[in-house]
Amino acid sequence: MGLFSTSFVLLVVVALSAADGDDEFANYTITGRRFPDGFTFGVATAAYQIEGAWDADGKGEQVWDTFIHERPERVDDRSNGDVASDSYHRYEDDVRCMKEVGVDYYRFSIAWSRIIPDGDSETVSSKGIEYYTKLFKELKANGIKTMVTLYHWDLPTALEKKGGWLNPKIVEWFQMYALICYTFFGEYVDVWVTINEPKQICHTGYGNGAYAPGVVSPGVAEYVCARHVLLAHAGAWHMFDEQFRERLGSRNTIVIDSDWYEPATDSEADAEAAEVKRQFVHGMYAHPVFKGDWPQVMIDNVAKFSRLQGFNASRLPAFSEEEVRFVKGTYDFLALNHYTTYMVAAKEGLDFPAEVSWDADAGVDAYQKDTWQTAAVGWFKIVPWGFGKLLRWLKATYGDIEIVITENGVSDRTGTLRDQHRIDYFKAYMSHMLDAMYDGGVNVTAYTAWSIIDNFEWTQGFNAKLGMYYVNMSDPLRPRIAKDSSKYFANVISTRCLLDSCE
Ligand SMILES: *[C@@H]1O[C@H](CO)[C@@H](O)[C@H](O)[C@H]1NC(C)=O
Ligand SMILES: *[C@@H]1O[C@H](CO)[C@@H](O)[C@H](O)[C@H]1NC(C)=O
Ligand SMILES: *[C@@H]1O[C@H](CO)[C@@H](O)[C@H](O)[C@H]1NC(C)=O
Ligand SMILES: *[C@@H]1O[C@H](CO)[C@@H](O)[C@H](O)[C@H]1NC(C)=O
Predict the structure, then answer these.
(1) Could you give the C-alpha distances from 106 to 52, 85, 425, 446, in angstroms and in order?
(2) Does residue 101 carry a pLDDT above 50?
């Protein structure tokens, strides 16, 4: 009952804000173009957000277990992922939902500490292997292909105690874990993703400390983390490339998230500022992989600001020439997670920032417009045109490369089954994507919606729901109930069209 009355209020709010928000693009019409042949659709989840069973069958503790158990108030509603959507026991229900929607593939992650409970010993947990093998077999029996993430932020706590992503040994620890996964699961996996969203791992985990493991070291440790994440990714990619690719016939890449950064005005200074911000956000991880080394503007800014701030060397640790070659080219395609957009203005005045941080190192002002629609939390603004601009920028920056959208979706607080706002989001974002494909020649080959079921949304807990299926987190049985968006997405997949009919 509560569910339906709140959903009514929510719809009214969305309709109003859509009417007066964002006038400059109010004349946009959803495209009637069809998705090209061969384009595929999937849905995504991550282990800690859905599995629950946090200490079942010998699973080791991981940093998010520790981070939240130590201080429950770190999560808005003081919930945690101990049970979450209980997919450890209810994965067959998840697969049934996917079958209903008709997805081509499922993107999910493996929990490192379920496979190697203490992170780096040679003791592999047979129960952990068994769980994922059952899931793989269920997917196969239902004709659903797989895209598997090795690392979606859940570092075994035993490794964090040894320094985690700040310890150079993590490059070897990660390779050992990857080797075990390639060996046990390789035959079931169509696409491997080494690392998901390095920005969240390093900036949020070791910079501002808002995410596990909660290390606060802005502008210093977060760069050390970034260097190790990239080397660990590259090590796991090369191992795949040399020892597994030929035999398994699968692919392997890294997932990088990026917002779009739009210049605040037509001025050259703002255009330049926006580009600097894009390089600090997306380029920080993509430039080393796709072009080699950190973006030059990062090398220059961080070196200059570090010197002026009194550091004896740049806070951005350099890659050796050998490391630049090792990381460069470690991708099979460009994988993108995208949700929102910011405006960027050049900063006047100060020669260098007093504040030591990754944000300050970019040296620009980024903000969002009040007129833009807001999803469940303030920073989550719904700006569909930003997606199209980002896609065109990716092509202009990295060349005519294959792009796979590995996450895109929108949150609400209620979990309403009448989620017209989610349908509108998917429709408008995918429409701008199709325009970028047809008009901009951007080669997007697949789209992955986040998410198939409601799950545990990190520090927003159960306050932010992004599923196409509602999950009642108070019900021990965690039934999955179809929302309207699941039917819309199913229709897009079967008709390959965003509207009732296409050209
Ligand atoms: C929509 O409106 C904007 C601003 O008025 C204009 O620049 C743009 O060309 C219009 N687009 C279309 C498709 O009419
Ligand atoms: C820079 O300072 C740190 C301590 O703040 C020190 O450990 C390091 O050796 C110094 N590096 C150089 C190149 O002097
Ligand atoms: C897009 O990329 C895929 C994979 O590399 C390739 O097979 C396909 O021909 C490309 N499509 C276009 C339109 O360039
Ligand atoms: C969620 O489950 C609880 C416990 O079974 C129940 O009391 C509540 O009514 C359910 N809420 C909804 C919206 O179905």
Answers:
(1) 19, 16, 21, 12
(2) yes
